[in-house]
Amino acid sequence: MKKVDKQSPLPRYYQLKEIIREMVENEQLKPRDSVPTERELCEYHEISRMTARKAITELVHEGILFREQGKGTYVAQPKVKQSVSELIGFTEEMKRKGLKVETKILNFTIKEPTKKIIKQLNLELNDKVYEIFRLRIVEGESYAIEKAWVPEKHTRGFKEEDLEGSSLYKVLEEKYGIKLSHGKQYLEPIILTAYESNLLGVKEAMLGLLFERRAFTDDNVPIEFTKSVYRSDRYKFEITLEVP
User: Fold this and answer.
1) Which of 35, 52, 207, 215 is the most exposed place for a label (fewest CB within 10 A)?
2) How many C-beta atoms lie closer than 10 Å to residue 223's C-beta?
3) With b meaning 16 or more CB within 10 Å and e meaning fewer, what string describes 151-172?
4) What's the whole-model pTM score?
5) Could you give the CA distance from residue 62 to residue 18 in angstroms, rounded to a whole number?
6) Distance in angstroms (rounded) separating the CA atoms of residues 64 and 29
7) 167: nearest Cα among 89, 99, 225
8) How many Cα atoms are found within 13 Å in the side-chain-facing hemisphere of 208?
9) Are the C-beta atoms of residues 109 and 148 closer than 8 Å to each other?
10) pLDDT per residue as tens digits for the range 4-37
């Protein structure tokens, strides 16, 4: 391990953070490897406990390291990269990467839409929607909370059982002949609520990523409006940019 340079103008905690980050990127420290304790880092680098703690804490917040209560600090698994340049369901995206995906349906109901959902799905005042509330689990770990609304008029007879072992997009295509062609998606950072944190198994007030997406058919009919909350410590998103 490199040593913190006390003559450098860079803060010592920042130097230590970058030393550990480089060790992870160079695979000197691999996923699930333990990281030296704060005491060991203090002795090796001749720095204060506060400096070591700040470096470790920032790496934990970035999702590079994680803590296990009473055990220690470890290197986290690399964040799952998800493309936001393709209209593809969560299940298909994770399966592409060879990851095991599970879905827990928290609630499935038919209801009157709010004014916002009416606007997002171009509904009439008397139209109803199916509301699908799901917890998405990857490799046994909670990764995202997803709430989707689908117009009843396009999917009459939709049942919770239809989603068992299948994705929403697959059900829409195979059961209702609805093929989605494009979508619009917005992203913003949020602070997770107590309920969201509990579902995702993370500390309260952690940073999360909120996605709002609308999916359309070829003739521009909106079929799905979804709000998804992702763990920021397990996800990063890839956007493909093209020269106009």
Assistant:
1) 207
2) 22
3) bbebbeebeeebbeeebbbebb
4) 0.70
5) 12
6) 11
7) 89
8) 29
9) no
10) 999 999 999 999 999 999 999 888 999 889 999 9
